[in-house]
């Protein structure tokens, strides 16, 4: 009722058959207002109570790690900015910490801070990487926290980080969530971060604002290359996180004053740090979408054969568009197409099969059993000659000639299980950007209905990263791994959740699944079969849902892609209230 025009538009588009457009209008009606985060802070955070609890809690710990906060007074930083950072330190509840102050050559003297211990780094430097190293060397704490220039610490930040250290003594890096804060102290734009995700970190630095690093690990790092000095901490973290356990602390510990500003120089420095890290692996980098870094992993010299499996029953116009796109609009050429015909009867379809079978790269395999998506794809996998299998729905439209090349670059990497593409609805909104386990006590598509031209939730839909699952509408996986985990479960998941089950089996076997947004395709979703909510499908769907919940515990699953502060019923990354 607050948005009657949008509600009326949603009804109109639903009645005229534009279901995706109707859902987008309905989603706009239900979006949270600007006060949602303030409501969450009041309802969930209860910081005064937490600060009081922390003050009583930490003195009773058997071990109290000493933390060294490194503050660099950069060239041009105002005394007011320094004062705000010092004030956030002086308000800390946890008491076992020190301040290590490094200064640039032109830094003005600051008033003596009221802190447990102050160490002034000898000498001055305008090189932030050098200041970081000197600060680590001068620190006396077990862990160091380099505080970014635009960052204020929440009063319970050091308490939560120290608590995580006590609980995870083998970990070397700890990080928390963050938000933005204005000069009046009003907080907004919370960034509830996922658990450690190395592919996401190469695309988007989500640690450096306020992270805790074990000092002995930092001292053991090789010297920061002079060319990377503008992103020294990020370069150090890329190297360090590849060798140690990384722990996410699901608390808002940092308030950023300039987090919304895009700095091209900082982005270029991050890209250089990533390039330095991935170059020995044969990869290259470039600037990605919305202030991110894109890594182009190498293609094997001998391109592997990919068997593209397309189950279908009639709907020849959809199928023809899909197959024509694969054959004529796909740059990756070492492919074969296996069309699994599940009882097509229309003359136009059978005529098309007869003609397309004349292409040496296309085979049509007949299977007249009742529709079972898992069984059809398992049949295709058994008949496939390729080293890799690409499961592809017949209602996929090829719009990006590099889609398969981009996915192959990911799937050949060591340790990778399944790779999924970004799928769009015909109206340009996102249909699939990775699958989050536990949404709706089952599984859901992350960022569904987000316009593809918008950054969305911290550009997550636009960068490659590890996910729990990807959709089988377009999935690439090694045939050997597919067989190793038993393929698709055609007895338990004939239609729904078979792709989720497969990905979770791959994950349980020690492989990680990758969402690759630079492979972009259009999905005319479920054009060729009834929806799961149709009266003829409900009983079967409920049975498959119950099996998913029993086998994988999805009713209470904590997906590392998600966050406990995000709504577990929403695919649009809204705050849980």
From TrEMBL:
Pfam families: Glycos_transf_2
Protein name: Glycosyltransferase family 2 protein
Top-level taxon of the source organism: Bacteria
Xref: InterPro entries: Glyco_trans_2-like, Nucleotide-diphossugar_trans
Ranges where the Glycosyltransferase 2-like domain occurs: 79-216, 307-436
